[in-house]
Write a structure and sequence with these properties.
- The chain has seven helices and no strands.
- The chain has about 160 residues and is mainly α.
- It folds into two domains: about 10-95, no CATH class; about 110-150, no CATH class.
- α2 runs antiparallel to α3 and α2 (about 45-60) crosses α4.
């Protein structure tokens, strides 16, 4: 049974690259001729672009400066890609999310300390809790961070 094209559940390559975080934000800066003809090499595929860039230097012995220019990246970007590839292989070329990976101040005993001082049905008193955390743990925490950590709505003043 064939599925009509209008009902296809397949997502486009651009959609897949976007969802995976691997869509090249500047495909027009990739000047390597093999990325211009279409087909196998796709300048929108950031992982493929980085891999081919590294291959050109490693296998074809092209200069880092020339390859960086040809692929539209800075030399530091090239060297970062090289280090990422050497550390983790192709998976290292997938961009990583920036910033903290989840709550980093309010975990474990600090969060338990805060939760132990909450009174059901009473206002949160985030400013007071922030002062208590500072006193007990020497940790400066914004009251809004406490509200977010316990899932509370911002309380009106």
């Amino acid at each position: 049974m064939t599925v009509p094209a209008s009902h296809s559940s397949r997502r486009s390559k651009v959609d897949a690259l976007t969802e995976d975080g691997t869509l090249n934000p500047a495909p027009e800066r990739v000047c390597d001729p093999k990325f211009q003809v279409g087909g196998f090499f796709d300048p929108r595929d950031l992982v493929q672009v980085k891999y081919e860039m590294l291959r050109r230097v490693s296998v074809e012995r092209a200069s880092v400066t020339d390859v960086s220019d040809e692929y539209g990246v800075s030399r530091p970007t090239f060297y970062q890609a090289k280090a990422d590839f050497e550390e983790a292989g192709i998976a290292g070329l997938v961009p990583k999310k920036r910033g903290p990976r989840g709550p980093h101040k309010l975990q474990g005993e600090v969060l338990a300390f805060i939760n132990a001082r909450l009174i059901p049905g009473e206002p949160i008193r985030a400013r007071e809790l922030a002062r208590l955390v500072q006193s007990e743990f020497g940790l400066e925490v914004h009251p809004r961070t406490i509200e977010r950590a316990i899932g509370a709505k911002k309380t009106p003043r």
